[in-house]
Amino acid sequence: MNTVIQIHELFKKYKGADFFSVKELSLAIQQQEIVGLIGPNGAGKTTLISILCGLIHPTSGTFTIKGLTYTDHALQIKNLIGIVPQEYALYPTLTARENLTYFGSLYGLKGKNLKNKINEYLTILGLIHFADKRIETFSGGMKRRINLIAGILHDPEILFLDEPTVGVDVQSKNVIIDFLNELNRKGTTIIYTSHHLAEAEDFCTRIAIIDEGRIFIEGTPEFLIQSVAGATNLEEVFLTLTGKKLRDAL
Ligand SMILES: Nc1ncnc2c1ncn2[C@@H]1O[C@H](COP(=O)(O)OP(=O)(O)OP(=O)(O)O)[C@@H](O)[C@H]1O
User: Fold this and answer.
1) How far is the CA of 46 from the centre of ligand 1 (A)?
2) Cβ–Cβ contacts within 10 Å for residue 182, how many?
3) Ligand 1 within 6 A of 246 CB?
4) What residue owns the CA closest to ligand 1's atom 30?
5) Domain edge (last residue) among 139, 169, 189
6) Fewer CB within 10 Å, N or C, the chain?
7) Are residues 60 and 143 part of one domain?
8) Does the C-beta of 249 come closer than 6 Å to ligand 1?
9) Complex ipTM over 0.85
10) What's one Pfam family the UniProt record gives for this protein (predicted)?
11) Cα separation, 112 vs 94, whole angstroms
């Protein structure tokens, strides 16, 4: 097996906080896996992804991406990974094409190569006819798809997605998931967070259920369902393990 991400006893406490958002978290992710990080609000999923993407520092613990650390190889890692954040990272008054040209240029892409890639992805994701319209005129589902393209123009080997299908209709969701499956089939390792448990059950090759910063259990969706007596789907596993009370994170 080819380990692409190795996490060892990661802890994160935000400045001024009196609790850890990530606690003693260890996990190994293999090439071409689709790993779902599933957990209630405030469980620590975004914090974990932000650490792995080099956006924030862990308080303690170590991790490597393809054997590399940010301390020594930040630039190489930047080229290996793609990030699709929860919040739209798009400029509303620019067109879809202008936004994507800007994001591509951040990775050193330019000219015909960049233009062709933008056209290819806009076509696959059903947006080519909206290429020259301003983002502010787009629906939520269209913005999510542009946000996704912005994160993958440089063909990352490892893709991090924070709730890529939140707030979109079923058509946009299906287009996004089909597209991600195709990227994965070609070799991309995917780490994603979601609150759609049925989607995660179908989409992920492995799932880690996270609560209060810790991994409760991880394994294939089938393994998780078999591990909890009486559970027939991931939602039942999730509710059994994380409880049914509301979680409101600040
Ligand atoms: N910048 C920050 N400063 C202080 N505390 C933070 C910060 N970001 C997150 N937290 C806290 O860390 C904990 C984990 O938050 P995080 O956003 O990682 O959870 P999450 O699992 O992604 O939640 P959600 O499903 O709601 O997106 C929460 O208690 C949150 O309030």
Assistant:
1) 7
2) 11
3) no
4) 42
5) 189
6) C
7) no
8) yes
9) yes
10) ABC_tran
11) 20
